[in-house]
DNA sequence: CTAATTTCTATTGATATCAATGTAATTAGT
DNA sequence: ACTAATTACATTGATATCAATAGAAATTAG
């Protein structure tokens, strides 16, 4: 027989107030909503914007490095590409030199959508800087980078 | 006819390096994996741990305030509760005084699972503090809170 | 005291996320 | 060259996330 287990309420308060994972997930959801709302007129989510922006390179990258850059699982990237391919914004082609690799590139339509999104990103991000104490933005980014 | 649109590569670099939303999503994914891995032995994800911990209260809370605390959509909370109910770790009952409301509470089994998870959380979180420069943890939390 | 409004939650459909697993292509070891 | 190990990616199944919508219960306006 197992005794009844009681976690002290003080432990709950401690976790609630100090858990960095919780705080980051909370902020991630809030920021996702903020950018999703702002980008909705051009038909992009925050994640799609970041992904497509990371594909705007002189040379089309393969999937692995893109997944690493975004700190996401490779299978997540595979799934995330599908709606973008379906809309004709991203092309996925095979690398002739190494047939395991896929090369990811933006279509002209994809570039147009992304270009329309840039000013939205700029204004949204600017409003975000106002929400943080002066100078915290840079340090915040460095701290976040230390976690990823 | 539409001209070809070219977003300067420098813009891509700027967004990649400065976008707070991207940085937070990256950190959120990395921390989620870290805690998911650590909590796997007790059968919890980071989100389930945070949710269940937020239910460890003297009085069972309704859904609205819990969703607000976690900064998540109410429909997300409804979905997140389902696997926990199915496993018999969380009870969802009706409030007799206001039949619209559901009261969320942990079962004894749920409390036992949560109790087993607490030491895992403690050690994982401690290792996390080592990854950050001294004193950054508190300020990081405050900055994140300003965003949510 | 009824009707309109507000509050609280559930359902549906789409995308996001990851673990586990499988497969094809390349590389390394012999 | 042949086999073993590695690399790069896809598929499946489960959970997470939110918008849009709908429903029921409670509150408020009149």
Automatic annotation (TrEMBL), chains A, B:
InterPro entries hit by this protein: HTH_MarR-typ, MarR/SlyA-like, WH-like_DNA-bd_sf, WH_DNA-bd_sf
Signal peptide: none
GO molecular function: DNA-binding transcription factor activity
Highest taxon of source: Bacteria
GO biological process, one term: response to stress
Gene3D superfamilies in the record: Winged helix-like DNA-binding domain superfamily/Winged helix DNA-binding domain (1.10.10.10)
SUPFAM superfamilies: Winged helix' DNA-binding domain (SSF46785)
Record domain HTH marR-type: where: 17-148
Protein name: MarR family transcriptional regulator
């Amino acid at each position: 027989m197992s005794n009844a287990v009681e976690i002290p309420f003080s432990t709950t308060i401690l976790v609630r107030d100090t858990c960095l994972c919780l705080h980051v997930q909370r902020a991630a959801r809030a920021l996702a909503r903020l950018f999703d709302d702002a980008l909705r007129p051009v038909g992009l989510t925050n994640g799609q914007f970041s992904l497509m922006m990371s594909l705007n390179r002189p040379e089309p990258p393969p999937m692995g490095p893109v997944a690493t850059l975004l700190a996401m699982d490779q299978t997540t990237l595979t799934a995330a590409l599908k709606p973008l391919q379906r809309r004709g914004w991203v092309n996925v082609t095979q690398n002739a030199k190494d047939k395991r690799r896929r090369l990811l590139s933006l279509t002209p339509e994809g570039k147009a959508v992304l270009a329309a999104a840039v000013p939205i990103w700029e204004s949204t991000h600017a409003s975000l800087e106002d929400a943080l104490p002066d100078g915290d933005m840079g340090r915040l980014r460095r701290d976040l980078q230390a976690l990823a």
